[in-house]
Design goal:
heterodimer, A: 2 domains, 2 strands, B: mainly alpha, Rna Polymerase Sigma Factor, Chain: A, Arc Repressor Mutant, subunit A, 2 domains, 9 helices, elongated, disordered N terminus
Amino acid sequence: MTEDNKFEEFLKTKAQDYNAPPVRVPRDEMWAAIEAKRAAGPRVVYGGGATYMVGQRRFGTRMWLGAAAAAMLLVATGVGIGRWTATPSAPPAVATTQPQTPASVTPSVTGEQTGTPLSSPIQPAENGPSMVASSSGTNTGRPVHQGTTQPRSSAPGNGPQVALAPAGSSSAYQLTTVQHLSEAEALLTSFRTRSNTDQQMDAQLGAWARQLLSNTRLLLDSPVANDPQRRPLLQDLELVLVQIVQLSPGSAPQDRELIEKTLQQDHVMTRLRTAIPAGTQRGS
Amino acid sequence: MHMVAYETQSSVNDIQLITRVVAGDAAAERELYETYVDRIYRLAFRLAGDDELARDFTQATFIRAFEKIGSFRGESSLSTWLHSIGVSVALNGLRKTKRQRSREAPIEEGITIGSARVEAEPDLKERLARAIDSLADKYRTVFVMHDVEGYTHEEISGTLNIPIGTSKSHLFQARSKLRVLLADFAPEWVS
């Protein structure tokens, strides 16, 4: 017998004491525990169905919670980076050239108006849609889009040509947007503070909201909507404005509450105020 | 050793047993359990070295087996399939336990270091146990199954889902490491 064989024999003999199990196997106790655990967990369905034990379910839940936390962290990081990179490094410059391509929302901003808030944010463009003062008796000086609502899709020669928009026009669009958002904030503030029984006020707010709705849609079709922060805000604003427009005078309080709820849930007011730089002239 | 008897007669009996279990026969479940529980528990105990852990692993093995028996395709024997679940449950459970214990290690280490000075040189049994414990899981499992519990390489191969050659290689590695670790006791096996 070689030394290797002797060692193997020696090992086999001596290793019998390694973690030696008890002579009596606790069969009944273990079976009782198995039955109890199976009774406590979901009913077993044979065939590899969706069955799981309590422990596994906890593990799965923990896994999902971890994954959800990781996803949230990822999203938060992404949003943070997005906000950080979206912040302009230099003060916003005003366009010095008139946009050549007709856009649905074409702010009339010249070098003379540099740094000066616009009194009327959305001016009729030469080839753009007709924007005239309100003739409804509530002449607030706000522009009104006459006729049907501008379609959302950018038809050639009709909507804004994002790819063809001059680079210098972006600042003008920014200013226009800020003015528009200021006005929207004013409307929403008025809406929230109005009396529930004032039907005349409701009608005026409805007309005002309709004007802002048109402009919101135009902005959504403009290069402004390329901004990842502005677009969702404008979309949420559009929704709220639609609700206000549809609110007929003397409508049920529940309808108003619904609008209020939308405002609160989406934090529209907060986001509007965040989007409007400090010192900007607010709407009426 | 003991397993061979099961393997040769398991085919027909196992198929009938599985069919009954899948049909929801509670008596068949108990019969399956009674047939295999001893070996599963023994192996779990050998790997865990602790009665409570061995019980937990055995229970988890059968619970999982009852859950999945409908998907058993008979590609291996029922015994091999059950042992495969058992070893998987035990090794995963031990890894988890080790992680928990490693977190508590600082206190335990202090005690061990303090007492080691006063303790005498451990005897062969203790040294062997420590040496086996120090083996990597894959070597220790094959060694325990083959040299301690008497499984064949074919059975180990089926249970651990590794080639027979790998099983042999792991056993060789395990023995070689043990031989180095137990060199002090060489006169005992040479004589």
